[in-house]
Amino acid sequence: MSESGDEKSDKNDLGSWLIAMGAPASITYLMPSEITGLDIAPLASMLGGVGIKGGMRGVEGEKQSADEIRWLPVIRS
Amino acid sequence: MPSAVGQLGESLMQPFGFFYPTRGLLGGLNFSRDIYALLSQSDHIKYESVGQLAQALSDLGSIRIALAHIDSEEFAIWCGLGKSEARVHLLQLMSEIEQARIRAQESKLRLDFFEYRPSPRALFTSLTQLALVGVQCDVRQLQRVWPRSARTSLSAKWISKFQAIKVFSGRGDLVEIAPLQFVFTVKWKGVGNTDVAIGLIGKHVIIDVGGVRSFVELPAACSRMEPGSVRLSKNKFEINFVVKESEWPTS
After folding, report:
1. Domain assignment of residue B144, given as a range
2. ipTM
């Protein structure tokens, strides 16, 4: 299912974005490469200030991106 | 293919000038027959392995969370549809995904090992992943069918381990432990014995066991808190949160 074209990883492509949104990496194998390789920059540009990175707000205007997984340190007890 | 998936797939292609044969972003998900099977309302669905079913359910859940993070207005612009029409498609799709998940959780799992028989250890991992996405396996059935393909029966040690696997409830509780300090506790029997990773995305906690994921919604108050470490014990994990004082209302 995995073609070499699917391996293309650009931060602005749709596949990377879906993974950043919480989808597992295998999602890129589930969709055709024309889709996962789709450049989302025009979309991000079109959305302007709203932005697809909208979500939780950080402190004092600092935007805390809600579309990236933040893995936490695990302490076993 | 459910109509909402097809329509959404078609609509997603419009702004980018794509045309068939691709069926669109989410329509393309039927490239995974596993997910397609879950979205369809088949009475019997066959998977090659327990792990494959767990992964399909996990992927479905991940897609639902990704969709939940999309602002409906942004989604409408992306789809090139009117706001209300796009919202209807989005909600319908999320509803179908949720229904598929519920169908899978309520379904009767029938195992056989004629084509593939994993080691007890691998099966234990797969059944743990399956429990993480909400599906329980009947251990009595496992004991019954295992010897049909194996030379020996399952040992008492493994039977005991399989019996200890419990379905994850998908819930957690936020408790204040000190001024401005909270703990979000998620219970799952045996979680301490798994190789689990815990993360946050938006307003959800991600629990990842070997690539299979489940999500727990955080209380709204957590959006004004900073997460710390996760304390993992045998049957639960606790995420520490500290309130961002700058966002706390002052009198």
Report:
1. 120-163
2. 0.77
